[in-house]
Amino acid sequence: MTQVIDHRGGVWSIAVPIPDNPLGHTLVHLLETDRGPVLIDTGWDDPDSWDTLVAGVAACGFAVTDLHGVLITHHHPDHHGLSAAVREASGAWIAMHAADTAMVRRTREAEPGSWLDFLTAKLTTVGAPEDHLAPLREARAKRHGAARSGRPPALPDREISPGALLDLPGRRLRAIWTPGHTPGHVCLHLEEEHPGRGTAAGGGPAAASGPGARFGRLFSGDHLLPGITPHVGLYEDPDDATVTDPLGDYLGSLERIGRLAPAEVLPAHQHAFTDAGGRVRDLLAHHEERLAGLRTLLRDPLTPWQLAVAMEWNRPWAQIPYGSRNIAVSEAEAHLRHLVKLGHAEPVPGSDPTTYQAV
Q: pLDDT at residue 149 above 70?
């Protein structure tokens, strides 16, 4: 059964399933405008997900062909996956921040197998053992000369500019650049009085009046979730040697959303909630505690792989699936990079693969 929630004021959420994923679903939001409905994210590219999205749009009182546009919070497939199908069915435009559009373009233009080459080289550099590298080499050999499979991610035709009011007649929706989870992640602030007039859609307090009052609703994508800490890892361009600090970007973005103080947050996973400031404080404290724990681990020199193995995850390292270990190592690298930037860790000269030690 399709799960649709009317958040009032022309705002709806549709739970679009993510196949074989513990998150369960993506909350795709539909925003009514004077020019027609607009989606915020679309869900995973899967036949069941598409059927759920179509049924959900119908439950909101529209047909997919009525859709006017698609706003993408970030390029991940559980958010951007069905964008091409929506555009094909409706002619809707697709908008995304330029940094994530660049990642979509890079994915579309990459030669088959090039990502496996890059990942193998990257994991070798961070100290991954041979038993982890071997399956990547085998997969690369099997894909040698193979054509790309599946539909490539849709290339957006509009840009979401930070700070801009989006071109949505009858609505005031402002883009807020919140890099960290991805380089071009955006939150979208609906700068309108909450329709609850005393209670938010989830039953909590709505926007109050007066100086400093909480105001409007925030479509937060994956940036701010009520019970999950989003993954923050590295998004490296094989052709770009720029050293980024995604964790630093994420922490700065969190503080910016904390100062915004929306009356209600409509995230892309789990459920709507009202205490944005409290959740921001919890996440900042979590990362501060995590960084302190890593400094303790780095009393002895460790490679990024060894650090990932030693870190605390939601399950023991031996139980983490193969692909998820790559994600964990990327997160360990992001934390290491932030510690180095703060002057709390440094690479050990002459080590190969490179090890790091607390300062």
A: no
Token pair 């555009």: residue: 87
Q: Name residue 10's amino acid.
A: G
What is the pTM (predicted TM-score) of this model? 0.92
Dihedrals φ, ψ of 11, to 5°?
-125, 130
Query: How many residues would you count in the chain?
Result: 359
Residues 6 or more apart whose CB falls under 8 angstroms from that of 27 comprise: 13, 14, 15, 16, 41, 266, 267, 268, 269, 270
Q: Identify whether the C-beta of residue 339 lies closer than 8 Å to the C-beta of residue 295.
A: yes
Query: For 54, what's the count of Cα atoms within 13 Å in the CB-facing half-sphere?
Result: 13
29: DSSP letter = E
Yes or no: say if 157 and 93 are a contact pair by the CB < 8 Å rule: yes
Q: Where are the beta strands (DSSP E) in 199-263?
A: 217-221
Among the listed residues 153, 155, 156, 173, the one whose alpha carbon sits nearest the alpha carbon of residue 164? 173
Chain segment 76-95, per-residue pLDDT in tens: 999 999 999 999 999 999 99
Encoded tokens for 166: 């989006």
Q: Collect contacts of 135-144 with beta carbons under 8 A, ≥24 apart.
A: 135/322, 140/113, 140/116, 143/112, 143/113, 143/116, 144/113
Cα distances (Å, whole numbers) of residue 300 to 59, 216, 354: 57, 48, 13
Distance (Å, whole) CA 321 – CA 237: 25
The two tokens of residue 148 are: 């790309």
142 or 90, which is more confident: 90
Helix (H) or strand (E) holding 173: strand 173-177
Indicate the SS3 state at residue 148: coil
Q: Helices 276-297 and 246-260 meet at what angle, rounded to 10? A: 160
| DSSP designation for 64 | G
DSSP 8-class letter at 356 = E
* Residue 325 contacts residue 231 (beta carbons within 8 Å): no
d(CA 43, CA 274): 24
CB neighbours (10 Å) of residue 135?
11
